[in-house]
Structures are given as C-alpha cells and as structure tokens.
Amino acid sequence: MSHTIAAVSTGNQVSAIGIIRLSGDDCIAVSDRVFTLNNQKNLCDVSDRRLYLGTLHDKQGRCIDQCMVVVSRAPHSYTGEDTVEFHCHGSPAVLAAGLEALYLAGAKPARRGEFTKRAFLNGKLDLTQAEAVIDLIEADTADAAANAAGQVGGVLQKKLAPIYDDLVNLCSHFHAVLDYPDEDIADFGLENYSGNLRSDAKALHSLLQTYSQGRILRQGVAAAIVGKPNVGKSSLLNALAGFDRCIVTDIPGTTRDTVEETVMVGATRLRLIDTAGIRDTEDTVEAMGVQRSREAVENADLVIFVCDGSQPLDEADAEIIALCEEQENAVALINKSDLGSAVQPGDLPFMMVIPVCAKTGEGLAQFADAVDVMFEGQTPCDGSILTNARQYDAIRRAYETMLRALQSLKLGVTPDAVLTDVEEAMEAMGEVTGVTVREDITARIFERFCVGK
Length: 453
Hints:
By secondary structure, the chain is an alpha/beta fold. It has 3 domains: 5-110, Probable tRNA modification gtpase trme, domain 1 (Gyrase A, domain 2); 155-210 and 383-447, tRNA modification GTPase MnmE domain 2 (Four Helix Bundle (Hemerythrin (Met), subunit A), Up-down Bundle); 226-374, Rossmann fold, CATH 3.40.50. It contains 15 helices and 13 strands. The chain has helices at 27-32, 92-104, 114-121, 127-138, 142-152, 155-179, 194-209, 211-219, 233-241, 284-299, 315-325, 364-374, 389-411, 415-433, 439-447; strands at residues 5-8, 15-23, 35-37, 51-57, 63-72, 83-90, 108-109, 221-226, 259-265, 268-274, 302-308, 330-335, 353-355. The strands form 2 sheets. Strands 3-4-5-6-2-1-7 form a 7-stranded mixed sheet. It has a 6-stranded mixed sheet with strand order 9-10-8-11-12-13, sandwiched between helices. A hairpin with a 2-residue loop joins strand 9 and strand 10 (268-274). Helix 6 packs antiparallel against helix 14 (415-433) and helix 7 (194-209) runs antiparallel to helix 13 (389-411).
C-alpha cells in the first residue's frame, strides 16, 4: 500500500491554470474531504479521466477555488496508482491553500521526482523513459524536445530490448544445457550466437556514435570566441546575445577572464565563451585569462576566430590562427567591416570566412546560416539520439565487454569464460533501463526532478 503524496505540478509563478497532483491508494478519499462536486456525487463514484466542476475548500469549509478535478484509477494513470488532479486558477496563494488543505486531509508532501519514480517502480516507465521526462521538461530547443519526447515514448528502450534479449537467450541456453543434461535441449554452441553478438555489438556502436550530437543537443555548442585584444570579441557576443553582456572599451585587455552566455544563433544553441585577447603580457591577471582562453579553445565544439578587418593581419593573428586550425570546427569572422577592408577572406585559411560588423549586425545572419550547416544533425531527433552521460557510460561498457566476448570466441576459449563477458554486458545494459541499477543511483536520478513531477 502506497501512502498518498501531493504537490503543485505547475510551478509557483502566476499563471492561468495551476495543477495540484495527488497519487496513492487513498488519494481519492483524501480529495473527497476537501472537494465538493457540483453534481453532489462523491469522487469515488465519478468516471475515470473526465473533468468535473466543483469547489475546493479548506478544513473549515471555506471556499478556496471553483475548479476542475480529474480522477485516473490504477493502473491506467501516470504513476500506475490512483491519481487525482485539481485544475485550479493559477494563483500561487490558491495553490498553496489547496495543498495545505490536502495535507490536513491526510496527504503527505511529495519529494522531488516522486511521481515519476513511482511510475518507474510500478513498471509504467523504464529508466530511459523516466530520465527523458526531465530532459523534456528542460529542453531548450524543438529538436531537444522532440528527441526527449521520443525517448519518453520508448524509442531508446525499443532499440536496447532486442540486444538484451539476445544476451539473455544465450546465457539461458548455456545454463539450461549445463543444469539439465538429461533433458532434450539442443546442444549449446557459441558459434551459433557469434552472428547475433556481432550485430548487437554493431548496434551498440552505432548508438554510441550519436552521443556527440546528443551532448550538443542537450547542452548546446560550446563556442569559444578568440582573437587579439580589441578586435571586437565582446561586441560580437553582445550582438549575438541581444544585450550588453560584456564590458566593451577601446582599452586592450578589458576582458581578463572567460565570459559565457547561451544564445540561439539560427536554429543552433550556442554556449558562447568570450575569451581574453590572446597575446603575450606581463600582467599576471591578464596572463591567467589568456591561459584560460587557450583552454577554452581546446575544449570547444566550435572556435570563432575574430580579427579586425580594418587592420592588416600580423604575427599575433597568425599564432591564434594556428591554434584554431588544430580544432575540428572553426569559422573566421572579419569584424569591423564598416571601417575598411585590409583583410580579405582569401587571407584566412578557414573553410568559412564571413565579413561582419558587430556594431551594426551586418553579416550575422550569414554567420547563423554557417553555424546551422556545421551542426545540422545527421540522426533524426526522434528519440534515437543518446543524450545522457550515465546511459552512454553503461552502453560503452556493454559494448566493450561484447567485443571481449567476440575476441574470446575467435581464440576458442571455453564457453563459461565467454559468458562471463556476456553477463557483464547484460549487467551494464540493465543499468540503462533500470533492470540492474543500484538504488542509490536511481535516487540521484530522481533528485534532478522538480517537486510535482
């Protein structure tokens, strides 16, 4: 028997509608104590998943709100338990009063993610789907939301289930032959499973290859803006952000540390990192900033080289260009196009070179198009992109142990040695879906959720 929990599921901001959610064996009875239906029925007599109008009141019978209620009985609910939702007017004061009345009627405050955790424990969601719920809530782009929605719908689970089933079949066949030698069971031969192991390992490898795209989908593109001091790096960040995020002066070395801002550039979310101008300096603080700039370049998904187009390139520019050329994705912006053209696109060894003016916004649309082309996903955002670091690590371990099993097959080792690797792969894959995951890990996962989800 599960105790009844309650929480506001729509945040604490003023809105048109606010929802109070309950789940648990007694949630209908608890709700009946503080809600009177206009048709004078009891909540235990209403139909499932239909909205009913009534009055939410406190323990003294005073009206809190005229609102709607919907009941979903187990197992046909989000949590797999009986649930009740009150659709109130979205005043934080109304929602707080309604929640207090439900607590006095017998409900307990829900913990972070407890509704989704109950859905997981009751078999309504596996762990990939449960983790995708928070990804869907936190999604900043349409692609991120679409991929998370696909995973909530079970796309990732459906990719992994056949692989896990193959491993289970292999292990169960081996143990059946070992434990019941007198039964009429087909002889066990590892060679009969090598093809499945190989195709399963290939499927895991393909899934792992989507993680770099998934990380960008979830976190955005880490884009380091680099160049000499006073070429307009901070002005560029301000122009892309749409407000004065950085201090801009004519004094070289104004930016002495990395400054970050997340912006949408075209259809791509960039985590822009404005770096200190890279140059030799005897100023200790500025030198630390220059070192951080170099580290930002090394760790960036995209390097944006900025030069002053009104001045000829010099050795300092050449040194920074060499640093940028070591990175996979780089684009050059010739800034200050309104002041002349001492630098031509052909002077720079980049695949994409765009004249811009951070002051007027000229060329920024072309820059946005270039970024979209560079980071346009090759995998459809339908839930098949791996975005979760925990899941990536578990699948990587499963893949590596399956490779070891295949190598053991080639070497002709005994079946029990091969199955040690197969069972280890099963353990790792079970961590992804929640079959074998430890309780402390699941607790940490659901702590990411807000109260009420």
